[in-house]
Amino acid sequence: MKRIxxxxxxxxxxxxxxRRVREQQVYCEIWPCTRPMADIVAWQPAGIILxxxxxxxxxxxxxxPPAEVFELGVPVLGICYGLQVMTAMLGGEVVxxxxxxxxxxxxxxDEASGVLGRWTADAEQLVWxxxxxxxASAAPxxxxxxxxxxxxxxxxxxxxxxxxxxxxxxxxxxTPGGPSLIAAFVHDVCGCPNAWTMAAFVDEAxxxxxxxxxxxxxxxxxxxxxxxxxxxAALIHRAIGDRLTCVFVDNGLLRKxxxxxxxxxxxxxxxxxxxxxxxxxxxxxxxxxxxxxxxKRKIIGHTFIEVFDEAxxxxxxxxxxxxxxxxxxxxxxxxxxxxxxxxxxxxxxVGGLPERMNMDLVEPLRELFKDxxxxxxxxxxxxxxxxxxxxxxxxxLAVRILGDITAERCALVREADAIVREEIDAxxxxxxxxxxxxxxxxxxxVGVMGDQRTYEHTCAVRAVTSVDGMTADWVDLPHDVLGxxxxxxxxxxxxxxxxxxxxxxxxxxxxxxE
Length: 514
Ligand code: XMP
Known about the structure:
By secondary structure, the protein is of the alpha/beta class. It folds into 3 domains: about 5-190, 3-Layer(aba) Sandwich (Rossmann fold); about 200-385, HUPs (Rossmann fold); about 400-500, GMP Synthetase, Chain A, domain 3 (2-Layer Sandwich), CATH 3.30.300. Helices cover about 30% and strands about 25% of the residues. It contains 15 helices and 20 strands. The chain has helices at about 15-25, 35-45, 80-90, 180-190, 200-215, 225-240, 260-270, 280-285, 295-315, 330, 355, 370-380, 385, 405-425, 480-490, and strands spanning about 5-10, 25-30, 45-50, 75-80, 95, 100-110, 125-130, 135, 145-150, 155-160, 165, 220, 245-250, 275-280, 320-325, 360, 435-450, 450-465, 475, 495-500. A hairpin with a 4-residue loop joins strand 9 (about 145-150) and strand 10 (about 155-160). Helix 5 packs across helix 12, helix 6 packs across helix 12 (about 370-380) and helix 14 packs antiparallel against helix 15.
């Protein structure tokens, strides 16, 4: 299969380039720009994209691709820093500029060829710029295809060698004509057909799982009910049938009806061999009296590993493989020039299990982005609502109960959460939201119901939009929806007498409260 290699120079948009290439049904991978040339040659890319990045080629020690990238005989597209590094390495001149150009700009297209081949000549295009340095003179053999009104070189080409460069970012939504540039590069210049489809991926992934696991091997899969583990399980089941066993741990911190739903959908519906372990009491005992958010996460993580390990030991067969729903964004070796970042929250999924159980990992989703996983789920016949589910954190309701976690508080937040979801689900705007849920605050306040004084807990409602969970905005929910949520929680969930709405974005807040 013809595929594209993206060499990453640390741009915040590199993953978007990969998304745009895959939207053209062309497979691509992101590698750090420091990967040795031998690996690149062996991978046989049909074309190479050099990403943007925060460095300046005018500074000593700025990152470079191996020089042989330009001798490989395949097309190269440099984007922003990628264009500058290509220009500098091939004999052109890049100058540092006093001012940064950041934001929307209009470029005039002089020649619509090569990577601009799907644009129109002698016309304007709106693009997104984000750069300090600029091209003073293009490298020998290159001509300028487009410029901004201020004369900044916006696009260059060397058609003979099939090298192209863009000063702006075609991968971001603010460049409306960006997809047709990417399409022109991958299809017209590199000759990649539309071969990366989910149906093709399923065939490939099934064959890869079969090859890895062999004819006798058995795979254990921790099913959480979330999108990733569900899709991974369905895919592995297609590859090896009943040699897959799924283990669902009910930690007592799940959403309303979750355990029954998982049993119904996967066990009865899809016929997956499924074992449910009811460990609610064990988790709650471990969490008793613990209020520190990080300690809660650690306890839940350890308890999960113990419970899972014990369940596996009780099974009649030996399992040498453990399935994990790792996605591509977790796999990409990030090229960060900023050093280690602070741990805000220690995310818990099944980390630590493979070492303890001495099992090999089966990670069939390693190459996929979240939306591709959803598409794969649909291709595999999973129900739509399951595939479109909101993310639910591994530690479950525990991170939505501030302070002590008790069975009673779990029940309270679970009921309130069901109401929040029901009411927002009924609002047509809900499809654009990332997550919405209830949080229990251990703050009591005075209220009056009927003629009685009440002194109860507070329920916070949170609803956010987000693209990837890294940043988020609070949602301006219609007042009638908020009103219904409030009335229903107060009337139906005994234990709350006050409802507040969280209007904090991320940053500075996080999506979950703990
Ligand atoms: P925060 O609260 O860090 O959450 O803004 C970002 C996204 O991650 C989810 N989340 C988790 N997911 N295990 C997970 O699989 C975890 O431990 C975990 N903690 C938070 C959260 O729901 C949001 O979508």
